[in-house]
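Continuing the batch. This is chain 6 of the set; chains 1 through 5 are on the previous pages. Same settings as before, nothing changed between runs. Recording input and output for traceability.
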Amino acid sequence: MNNEHEPGFPRSAAEAGQFLDELAFDDTVQMPPLPPAADEIERGMVTTSLKLPQAMRERIREVAAAHCITPSMLIRQYIELGLSSEQPERMIPLSDAIRVLSSLRPTA
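Output for chain 6:
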């Protein structure tokens, strides 16, 4: 374990107190917009029906719950990923690539 402190970080309670006392707050700065809530995202959606085997539906629910999203959101993400693979020239944000790659299960 590395016990060296990063430069600029308080090393004691007194330094932490001094750091907090020197903070300046500016109430005139406009807050950045919040990301849309789930219900705002859902407003622009259309309902589409599809049939799935029972086992697949349960698996989708489990994976969605593990990612703290709805099954509909998970299905949309997987469909978007599949559609994106049909357009190899299309660039995607690095954050999306990292998110998808980090969700892959390790292989043997």
